[in-house]
Amino acid sequence: MANNGISDTNKLHNDQDIISRFSQGDEVAFRIIFNEQLRPLCYFAHKLIGQKEEAEDIVSTAFASLWERRQQFSAFSAVKSFLYIAVRNSCYDLLKHRNVVNKSEDNLQYTGNTPDIAVDARILQTELLQIILGELNNLPERSRQILEWSFLEEKKTSEIAALLSLSEAHVRMEKSRALSQLRKLLNDKQLLESLLLLWVILEK
Length: 204
What we know:
Structural class: mainly alpha
């Protein structure tokens, strides 16, 4: 991956600038895309296949494929569509191998055309997740960690209690308090109702 002279992410000011630099092979632009999309994609893949390490491998492969095809992209939306579809296809391939998904089901292939409604909906869902993740960073460290373990990594209360050397009752109390703090943060920014409504619509 060649670096075309940009050494500071602050020099990249908007999505179009990032994509322009990325398509020219700039590593900083690629790293911005990687850092922004990594966690939501890993979460999505993990929800599909149920294995964290395999989900991370699938997402890493998708990013490698994105880099190889970097010259094809001129819009951020196309990058997101490609990543989502690549991850989705790989997850379905793995599930088919496990005989979980019907082998006759066709994968959705990336063709460079406008993604269908289902893909757009999932991309929007990952963006909603990114907003929530951003707000988690504003919580106290332990509150953030408990919510991430509980909802993103789906750890049991007993597992979290063991990791923190706390009682399960204490973890449940801390989780409840952390959720209240998160709701307040989202509500203060007038995001809570909109996020909940959009999430419900996308899940239908």
